[in-house]
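User: Hi! I'm working on a homework problem where we have to compare a predicted structure to a textbook description. Could you give me the structure for the chain below?
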Amino acid sequence: MVSDIQNEMRGTQVTTIVAGRFDEAQAAQRALSALISKGFHHTDASRFFVNPPGQHGELPAGGDQFADAESSKAHIGAGVGAAAGGAVGAAAAAAIPGLGPIMALGLVALGAYTGSFAGAIAKLGDDSAAEALHASPGRKGGGMVAVRVLNDEAERIAIETLREQGAKDVERAEGEWRDGTWQDFDPLTPPRPTA
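Assistant: Happy to help. Predicted structure tokens:
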């Protein structure tokens, strides 16, 4: 059993860790139970939650990135929308007879404001911005199950078990395992998938 193999080297702190991501907490719990039933000790396997990209809270102003990839082109959309909206507002002001200059400027400003807002929103939904977000480094959010493995056979069993349980993004890492958890886990580091 795995527990006999694992017991040989229990004092090691920096070790090989195999982990898998799950979309649902119940699936992660089932995977953890499956690992323990295959002989991994309770102190060699743990479950935790990883926030979605951008929400890890590493920066003083909040979040974990200096800019949101989806907002990268919003200023272009806002400028185009403001120009178009201003033109519509000017046309509307010209079409209304007897409109005073302040009311005409108000219509132009309202058109520009509305257009800039609509243009920025349109660019936020742009596929190229969404692709940039998904291509950014880091990892997807979800329930993580991590297990410390101390030899090749334990690693093979851990990988197979996580895959059988439906894990996504099964990865292998070197890390510090202490007090039954992956101590130096970094949600900003992209996962290194297993073969």
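For your comparison, note the following. The chain has six helices and five strands. Confidence is low (pLDDT under 50) at residues 4-12, 129-136. Good luck with the assignment!
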